[in-house]
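To: structure subgroup
Subject: Chain for Friday's discussion

All,

I'm putting the inputs and outputs inline so they're searchable in the archive.
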Amino acid sequence: MSFHLIQFIALRYIFSLKKLSFISFITFLSYLGITTGIAALICVSSIFNGFRDLVQDMLLSIDPHIRISQSHGNLKLSDTLIHFTKKVDNVLKVISCNTGKIIIHKNSILQPAVLSSQSELPTKLAIENFVLFTHSTKNNIFIGSALADKLQVMKGDTIHISSLAMIDAVSSGLFQSTGIPVIIAGVFQVSGGMDYDKYLCFSSESLGATLFGSRTTNIDIIASETKFTEKIKSLIIQNPLFSSLIIKDWNELHKELYATMEYERTASFIVISLVACVAAFNILVSLWMTVHTKRKDIGMLLSMGLTTNQIKHIFLFKGMIIGIAGTVSGTVIGLLLCKGQQLYGWIPIANSIVKSLPVSIHSIDIITSCLLTLGLAFIATIYPSSIAAKTSITESLRYE
């Protein structure tokens, strides 16, 4: 028997069940369940990817792709490290940082903060009316929006900052100081769950040297693209000169946050996969009922010369037709919904940093969803098709 004839019989069993309306209804439910399941998998995965990409972009507006530091104080071999990393391919910028804790004074308000004095600001940090503060003769500082609210200050205001060493000296009575006056050159806002706005400040290297002394606490590396991070990191680790340094990429800087987001995404994927499992069970039931109802037809086909493998292939093909049709239609619906949300923002988010629900389509999620539904559909066909292949000619025709 040719494949086309097997295909024809399988299609007849799907679309020619005039007297078997209940089986036809279950078959339709199977198709609808798989369609709904894979569409939901694609949409939910894309939404989680959208939020993850959004958080990642926000954090990378402050964080580097790679941060190199040392467990104790000043970073050794900093000049050698800078010279080495600047020669590595796909490295966009190498920023030396002098980071320390400060106290900000504004009238009677005191607020602790962390000051990162750098040769330049992080690449993606969006600050209106950006000032190249490294070449400014004034002490400029950029602070987070939440910290500015606590201090009740805005751009252009003057505040006073003190390092912990300066405060210790004042408390010991060595000298009196109200701190170093600085001008707020800009206020930035970065969300993403890390509260950078509440405590982080940026300044020039000269201001950091005044507060903390001439040192380098960490070196930040900005890559041209995120995908080059692992390659750059591995090249640095392979150099024996830097074996004692702490080297973390952007993912390791917030490992718990990204792990939690991935766990939520995986858990949601598993839960929604149950829809596809129920649809696969419906395929099993409809095929099993078809086999028992069509025992006479199976016996006649066997008496006409069909082998048991060919009978098995008929019902395997019928189940896979349902699975493939549901997978294709569900994938198309899921992609259309995601693309529509990306282009038109059908689901807005009020009072948020984004206007609408973020959606990011990843090909690996689409492939995984399709393989899952097709695999479940195939598994559901094994048992009914095996029963059909074991049908006896004499017993199937005896009841007719």
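Points worth raising on Friday:
Residues 126-137 have pLDDT under 50 and may be disordered.
The chain has two domains: 3-58+258-398, 66-251.

D.
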